[in-house]
TrEMBL record:
Signal peptide: none annotated. The gene is secA. Coiled coil: none annotated. It is a peripheral membrane protein. This is Protein translocase subunit SecA.
Amino acid sequence: MAALISRVGKKLRRIIQRPGSVELTRYEALLPAVEKLEPELEKLSDEELTERAGELREKLKDTAFGDDQLIEVCALGREAARRALGERAFDVQVLGTMGLLTKHVVQMETGEGKTLAGALAAAGYALRGKRVHVVTVNDYLARRDAEWMGPVYALLGVSVGWVEPAHSREERREAYAKDVTYGAVAEIGFDVLRDRLVTSVDDLVQPAPEVAIVDEADSVLVDEARVPLVMAGSIDHTDADEEVAKVVRRLRLGLHYETDSEGRNAWLTDAGASVVAKSLGLEVDDLYGETASDRLPAVNVALHAHALLTRDVDYLVRDGKVQLINAARGRVAELQRWPDGLQAAVEAKEQVTATDRGEILDSITVQALLARYPEVAGMTGTAVAVAEQLREFYELEVAVIPPNTPNIREDLEDRVFASPSQKLRAIEEEIRTVHETGRPILVGTQDVAESEELAEKLAKADLECVVLNARNDAEEAAIIAEAGKKGAVTVSTQMAGRGTDIRLGGTDGATRDEVVELGGLHVIGTARYPSSRLDGQLRGRSGRQGDPGSAVFFASLNDELVLSNAPDVPEGITDDEETGEIKDPAALRQLNHAQRVAEGVDLEIHRNTWRYTRLIERQRRDLLAHRDKVLRTAYAAEQLEKAHEEKFGELKEKLDDQEKLEQMCREVLLFHIDQLWSDHLAYLTDVRESIHLRALARETPLDEFHRAAIPEFHKIIGEANSRAAKTLEEAELTDEGIDLGDAGVRRANTTWTYLVHDNPFDSDFEQTIKKVRSMIKRK
């Protein structure tokens, strides 16, 4: 009867397409066949095993995976892992491999062996003749996993490499030439951008994308989906208005400016506008008029930097530079920055040297980067919570893989307090009480400032702890690896993406049995995160592979999550006079409500961003197809010959080399295409920044954006041809052909890449409301 109910439940979930409803029955039925092949494969020598994989490669080439192929891929992978790593893949890892090979996002709990399942799936795709990119969240994991899984790939006759920031162009080209390439999402994206600016086919480093397997898929595909990766060329510094920064620095909340409850918007009060205008030598009316049109944006950006961005929460100042903190991971977001005006304003606020701005040559969002791959699969410990987004934005379904050993972690009910200070005292007492038993403790904090404040309090209470946050992320793997030692207390910012298992007893397992007897790792969350998924990731650090453990979250009705998303706390909720703890179930309901609101806002921002970037990506795709034709054919020479036959004939005579002639024409036309695309991106940025004002006139901002963007895009190819023809017409010909520098064909002599922290404050709708509210307040 139980088996029947289970089957019916699975069918119902599949019919109504609930998250995590991918049917696993097909794959589970193949497991006995995989196991049946083991004795046969165990008898083979290493060379024979590699040869057997080679034979499968011939059978699989450019075909889809049928059941027989899935069975053999998994059996060969299991045997290769047994020999190379001394690890026989569990059935659940084989299930995960099958899920990945059939283009799903598989949810596997922490410690269940996602890395091996991903490697076996990557090998399977490679044996099918596909080039595979395993996309990770950081460079450390890319190199670690490529080297760790290298022997498994070798036994299967599959080559593997990785890319990292220190690699040269030639090293990158060599890595991408492998069957399987590991790389951080940003690093792979930056190579895509660099390839889009080459003027010779020989300079390309990436082949055409085919298969992407995304590690920590929820983090990459959802949390970072709307983050633009940018390629810039050196032009100048973005010098923030220092005078404005000094004025804004003196403003006080409540008197000179106000913020909304969500911490997304800030605006001047009448008193603030008066102070700012007087300090800048303007009249108040002038500040909002056309005569000061260049100062008002500077004031607004400086106010955002001053009022809404907090040092050690949103960013660090380290080595004389402003470095953003990735909110989803609690670590420094390497190479990431805000849009230039805001970045410069924060640098002015902190009185550090302004970084180079440059001209944006091209950009791509993480979501658009992954959309380039015809086949995408992913793996993570928390996929069900974002199943709706994965289906909506990527057409991916989630397959929930059961744990190899049942999870026995005890998830305790949240403890809610009236104030953050009361909550902090309770956390300190919880740490003391548990630490006295010898159990290891992992504390997950919201940000760097909180982690350091807690560590300081623990030190005063003679409770020694190790702090892992954005200030020391270089040592994070070693710190986390030892967090399961007896008596260890580890305080860390958000754990998502750390990528290192916490083994009870530490890496050497010396005190494992003792820690198991004590109850395993105890996880403490100092507040609910804006997403229940992030809560789950922190909890999942305890109870790996059937280990004992426990997790508890502390929260306050005055936490940022509640104040920003559900500040209207129901009346009648009382707290303990001595401790401030609230036992009323209504408090927990309020917390859950606040979290759901936060998740809804984040989803709407994602949708809103994608509505705009979808058109840009379509235009980028069309222009890149044209650019590729120019890059690979004689199109440029043909166009210039049609435009100026006589001058073209002179150039041809000077060079007397068809290949050189075509390359010179190609460089001229590509320069103008790239310049016009860069100008188009700048134009679209300006349009989008002002488009919310259209809502005041009852126009749909997105429709207006399309009306502005589409006609301008259609001018690019024709205008590039005209400009190239004009360059040829006006160029002085030499024995070397055209002096490109003298002809104005000068590309940026320095380029660099970075990520933009997009939409740090509000949506277009919220910006509209902010402006209306600001106007009303001024009246």
